[in-house]
Amino acid sequence: DAAVVPIVMDGKGQPLDVGRITRTIPDGLRRAVAARDRGCAHPGCGRPASWTECHHILPWEQGGETKLSNLVLLCKVHHRQIHSSGWSVRIHDVLPEFIPPKWIDYEQRPRRRALPHLVGV
Fold first, then answer.
1. 69-121, pLDDT tens digit by residue?
2. 3-state secondary structure at position 22
3. Which residues is 75 bridged to in the sheet?
4. Local structure of 114: helix, strand or coil
5. 48-76 in b/e burial notation, b at 16+ Cβ within 10 A?
6. What is the DSSP code string of 30-87?
């Protein structure tokens, strides 16, 4: 009952990808997601990273991996919204994009949160 799991590490030895062996987000991976998203990534939300949860974009139970490109930070409100209201999220050009349901935007144009360090650039 053993498994060999390749783990991708950053330069400081922190895990950035643990594949399918665990659904739990290691601290180093959470820090990497927080550095990328800088808080709840949902457009219009300003909640800080300390108020967020990591969400598997492709659910772990459906084969989604526990890696940076499959995780996004969401506050509890937006985490529930993603699971229940028809919104979806994807990573595009390294950043999270949110696709609204058709009842909000018939064309389902992707939306991104404006990052504070990029405003006015």
1. 999 999 999 999 999 989 999 999 889 999 999 999 999 999 998 765 544 44
2. coil
3. 52
4. coil
5. ebeebebbbbeeeeeeebbbbebbbbbbe
6. HHHHHHHH-S--STT----GGGEEEEESS-GGGT--SBGGGEEEEEHHHHHHHHHSS-
Residue 7 reports pLDDT greater than 60:
no
pTM score, whole prediction: 0.77
CB 36 within 8 A of CB 4: no
Rg of the chain over Cα atoms, rounded to whole angstroms, equals: 15
Q: Which amino acid is located at 56 in the chain?
A: H
